[in-house]
Amino acid sequence: MTTTSDDELWSAIADPSRRRLLDLLVGGDATPSRLAANVPFTRQAVSKHLAVLEEAGLVESRREGREVRYRVCPARLDEATRAMADVARGWDRRLLAIKRLAEAAHERATDA
Q1: In terms of C-beta density within 10 A (0-12 exposed, 13-18 middle, 19 or more buried), how is residue 21 classed?
Q2: Which residue in 78, 21, 80 sits closest to 49, CA to CA?
């Protein structure tokens, strides 16, 4: 992923409302109206969130008659999962280093 792509991804999934829409779309494609029936915000808000998710490549849309249907882009979602796992591994390493420093400081303090 590129930096711009990363920024769009993190921005898109940072919002709990967008994550909720992603959760709903994992179950299958849906229209903004159907999604709005399952969330505590308006259809207009759903459409705005879907636009952000689409810009980040997490969902794609297709016109079906008068309706627009959205679905998850599995490849991008997989990319997002890998990116989040990489971040988690980085934090695990940092936290382990902090823990070791704290333990060493505690050991020095009790030995003194």
Answers
A1: buried
A2: 21
Q: Rounded to an integer, what distance in angstroms lies between the CA atom of residue 33 and that of residue 19?
A: 17
Residue 50: name the closest of 65, 79, 30 by CA: 30
pTM metric for this prediction: 0.76
Q: Are 59 and 53 contacting, i.e. CB atoms less than 8 angstroms apart?
A: yes
DSSP string, 49-91: HHHHHHHTTSEEEEEETTEEEEEE-HHHHHHHHHHHHHHHHHH
Q: pLDDT tens digits for 41-71?
A: 999 999 999 999 999 999 999 999 999 999 9
65-99: pLDDT as tens digits: 999 999 999 988 888 888 889 989 999 999 999 99
Q: How many residues does the chain have?
A: 112
